[in-house]
UniProtKB/TrEMBL annotation:
Segments passing through the bilayer: none
GO BP terms, alphabetized: proteolysis
Organism: Lentibacillus amyloliquefaciens
The protein's name: Signal peptide peptidase SppA
Sorted UniProt keywords: Hydrolase, Protease, Serine protease
Length: 331
């Protein structure tokens, strides 16, 4: 390569670096730097919902499907993050400045294990930190959403909230006929008779169905017991109500599944009245955003292209591969 070509290559590299630098600095200077640098890299930011000088009520939002997905990709740039939510709940529970907690639930439910982990964390806060936990239901607080609400000291729903859906579901596809039409032959080598149970490429046997039904029944029994203990209801009543159907907030109140009707503001007012707190300060705990978070976000945005989007889609497919039991309200 002659000197002219080396010079041209050097200029091209310089222009590329300069272009990336210019784009980054443009993003930086288009931001309110004074407020940005004023933001600390603390784990959580507190947004005041209601001013007050008395007891502090912390609002924690549970929004989106309850599932533990990878935190290493673009899939979790927003939306529900299970590990992050549990840590936030634990942080608020340990925060001595917080007198009470309102869990704002807006979810159709999700994984059995994940729902149980949230449930246990709420019970831990009540027992170890002696803090009241109220639940304020949003548009949907069904299945796993009701499971996590059950141990709360009081549950408040909007009259149009969709809740209930008490039960467990496990689903898979059967593409046998489609595979036959397309001439697709699936070869399976397995170590045991039931290793490919719920395979999408063959019919399920009666014995396999019995095995899975036994599993689902056991998980349903756990769900029922959580409501029996949390709501102080008889098992027969819970099983009668828990046939998988959803209830409006009004229907849930009529059946004793929730304690009252109202929105988040009403729930905070109920907590203050029940506990004889005057002029309480209501604060919502949001995820923290500091300088490091901002830098990482800008760099990710700069290099995010079609390849990154395809990677995210591929990861989503991999995580969705295979049936699993869910406390989930699905249409």
């Amino acid at each position: 390569m002659n000197k002219k070509r080396w010079l041209a290559l050097g200029i091209a590299v310089f222009l590329l670096v300069a272009s990336l630098g210019f784009r980054f600095m443009s993003s930086v200077f288009s931001t309110d730097l004074e407020s940005l640098f004023a933001m600390s890299d603390q784990q959580y930011q507190q947004e005041v919902i209601q001013e007050g000088t008395g007891n502090k009520i912390a609002v924690v939002e549970l929004d989106g499907m309850i599932q533990d997905v990878s935190t290493s990709s673009l899939l979790n740039s927003g939306g529900y993050n299970h590990d992050r939510f549990l840590k936030k709940l634990e942080h608020v529970g340990e925060d001595r400045s917080v007198s009470g907690i309102i869990l704002r639930v807006n979810t159709p439910g999700g994984g059995v294990v994940e729902s149980d982990e949230i449930h246990d964390k709420i019970v831990e806060i009540q027992e170890e930190h002696n803090k009241p936990v109220y639940v304020s239901m949003g548009n949907t607080a069904a299945s796993g959403g009701y499971y996590v609400a059950a141990p709360a000291d009081k549950i408040v729903a909007h009259q149009a909230t969709l809740t209930g859906s008490i039960g467990v579901i496990m689903q898979s596809y059967n593409v046998t006929e489609l595979a036959d039409q397309l001439g697709v032959d699936v070869n399976t080598i397995k170590s045991g008779e039931f290793k490919d149970i719920m395979s999408a490429t063959r019919e399920m046997t009666d014995e396999e169905r019995d095995i899975l039904q036994t599993m689902i029944d056991g998980m349903y029994d756990d769900f029922v017991q959580v409501i029996v203990e949390g709501r102080d209801m008889s098992e027969s009543t819970v099983r009668e109500l828990g046939d998988g159907r959803v209830y409006t907030g009004q229907q849930a109140a009529d059946n004793g599944l929730v304690d009252g009707l109202g929105d988040l503001e009403d729930t905070a007012a109920m907590m203050q009245e029940d506990l004889d707190w005057s002029n309480a300060r209501v604060v919502k705990y949001n995820n923290g955003y500091g300088w490091n978070t901002y830098i990482n976000g800008k760099v990710q945005t700069m290099f995010q292209g079609e390849d990154a989007k395809l990677t995210a889609i591929q990861e989503l497919i991999q995580q969705s591969d295979g049936p699993r039991a869910m406390y989930l309200y699905s249409k």
